[in-house]
């Protein structure tokens, strides 16, 4: 409830070109939108972790390793496959950085599906 009482500009933010953007509904698709989440209003039972831990648990290391192997194999060519492989490595570094994106909170709910009628 406290979050809803605050001005929207305090908990909904936009970014374009590494700077603050405009209102969230202006120019859809041309800016990133981020919000604070009222975690106290979410259903119970979430497993909380950092983004870095979440991605490691879901095998980002395997993707980075594959990218590293491809980069080593194709770096001398400088083709698109080589650049994609190198990009995978540097993107993973950013996603895992504990002082940046890797420090973001991930909430995960495990839902069991029961089949049959």
Quickly list its features:
alpha+beta; 117 residues; 2 domains; two-stranded antiparallel sheet; single chain
What does this structure look like?
- This protein has 5 helices and 5 strands, in the order H-H-E-E-E-E-H-H-H-E.
- The protein is of the alpha+beta class and 117 residues long.
- The chain folds into 2 domains: 1-41, no CATH class; 42-109.
- The strands form 2 sheets. The chain has a 3-stranded antiparallel sheet with strand order 2-1-3. A two-stranded antiparallel ribbon has the order 4-5.
- Helix 4 packs antiparallel against helix 5 (80-96).
- The longest helix has 17 residues, at 80-96.
- The protein is extended, with a radius of gyration of 19 Å.
- 6% of the residues are buried.
- The model has no long low-confidence stretch (mean pLDDT 91).
Q: Which class of secondary structure composition applies to the elements? A: alpha+beta
N- to C-terminal separation?
A: 39 Å
Number of continuous helical runs: 5
Determine the fraction of residues in helical runs and give it as a percent range: 40-55%
Low-confidence stretches: none
In total, how many beta strands? 5
Question: Per DSSP, what share of the residues sits in E-state strands of 2 or more residues?
Answer: 15-25%
Outline of this structure?
The protein is of the alpha+beta class and 117 residues long.
SSE diagram, text form:
Blueprint: H1 2-5, H2 8-11, E1 12-16, E2 19-20, E3 32-35, E4 47-50, H3 51-57, H4 60-74, H5 80-96, E5 105-108
Antiparallel strand pairs: 1-2, 1-3, 4-5
Helix pairs in contact: 4-5
